[in-house]
Fold this protein.
Amino acid sequence: EFVTNISKKLSPPLVTLLSSEPEVQYVALRNINLIIQKRPDILKQEMKVFFVKYNDPIYIKLEKLDIMIRLTSQANIAQVLSELKEYSTEVDVDFVRKSVRAIGRCAIKVEQSAERCVSTLLDLIQTKVNYVVQEAVVVIKDIFRKYPNKYESIIGTLCENLDTLDEPEARASMIWIIGEYAERIDNADDLLESFLDNFNDENPQVQLQLLTAIVKLFLKRPTDTQELVQQVLSLATQDSENPDLRDRGFIYWRLLSTDPAAAKEVVLAEKPLIAEETDLLEPTLLDELICHIASLASVYHKPPTAFVEGKVGLKKMLPARAGDTDSEQEAAGATIIPEPGSLIGDL
């Protein structure tokens, strides 16, 4: 009861700080971010004060966006999604990307709203704005990982935008989706083969994902994809200079050639669901930062020892001025780096 009463008293002054100038707002938002990780109920009724204004600086917008996600619940999800969809039409590319990702985080956090979030993402894909489509593909991959076998009906729409994907993360996400649901995509082999044309020029992230996706496809449809899997294994193990890619290629090759059943168990194993909140601070660190509320530690989200105490031991001495005997004596007496013998003695 005591905690509840204190929490009620905390809310108004925190909200008041958000009507100050941007610099003060930023400090307040960073502190609020910590407080709601510890006590989310304090501001659960104050979602509207964190809605972004058109003239907010970008650093304020991004902090508000993060806090909005933390306060999202089944009660306010409709309001939040409406705001996020509006933000996704802004001119600031970085902010738009974060807004699209925030829709995905809402879907993962509030299961009852996942379908509505997916529908919102599909609406954004229909805008055909390149960077919006790419971010939407990335977050839909995360939604698939959270809710497997639930939203496969939208894969066709995603495949229609395959040619517009030019960022490594988006391409890798799309390849993962094709590999994961290869048995439900009739032309999965053609789609993956299209990526092989420029395999050596692809980002390592895309190469690794493509290798795994084609092996998955082979294990699900071995009769008509044998040539494709041999091609990608050859590219990965013989033509690549990336040790990670070569190693994975050799492992898959050995598994497939010696024990296909084991390969199926390894590659097609059921994966754990992704966590709802992946960016929360460690509980011990959060408790320490809460003790330093309204200090630099709560703005940096780092303990004071991380930026106050420097390394001890190596100290540069300023050269002595001519005729300054005191400084010469001090410099002569100063030990910059301990002698090895003294270190051994200490040990």
Observations:
- The first helix runs from residue 2 to 17.
- DSSP finds 18 helices and no strands in the chain.
- Residues 303 and 309 are 11 Å apart (CA to CA).
